[in-house]
Amino acid sequence: MTFDELRNLQIDDVIRWPVKTKLIVIAIIVLVLGVVVWFEFISPENDKYDQLQAQEDSLKIQVRQKQLLAASLPAYQAQIREMNRRFQNFLQQLPNRTQIPSLLDDVTLAGRSRGLDFELFQPTGEVNKNFYAEIPVKLKVVGTYNDIGRFAAAVAAMPRIVTINNIDIARMPDAGATSAAKAQAAQKLVMQCTATTYRYLDGGGSVDHQSKEGGKP
Hints:
5 strands, five-stranded antiparallel beta sheet, Alpha-Beta Plaits, 217 residues, rod-shaped, alpha+beta, 2 domains
């Protein structure tokens, strides 16, 4: 069909159009309708489908992650129970306020029973450390190397927590002493340190920051 033939076609006389022309016109109409339907209806729905597909994939990933967490929950709960048990055991090793004096007496006894002479035993007052308080005591003891070692081991073995820090060990001065005294002093050491115990502040109890007067026990 030529262009002139197309120009001469009358819309009102569609019935008399050649079959080939009718088919071409129908094909053009179908094509136009297809394009319109695609851009107006199908393409937006495809975009929505793609978005929903992406959301579905994201939800599947979240579900798998939550399933893994749910599977690990018993192990996490067991770990928390074990941590709580250890924490309670730790708290039981912290003396309360009424036990502090007897604990300090035990420290003194541990030193004296192992041959140490105390030249200084000075509590310096509690120091608040959030849920617990430090109770440091300055010590100055005199004894042999073995005596000091056995004293440190005895303190470490106490049922209540006591740590020894800021250790300074020196030979005992022998100025002005006799030969026998010098020989004996040569075996003596002077240890200055800080023995610290800890008290649990149950209920956020107040801490006494005032230094206690201390001296030789």
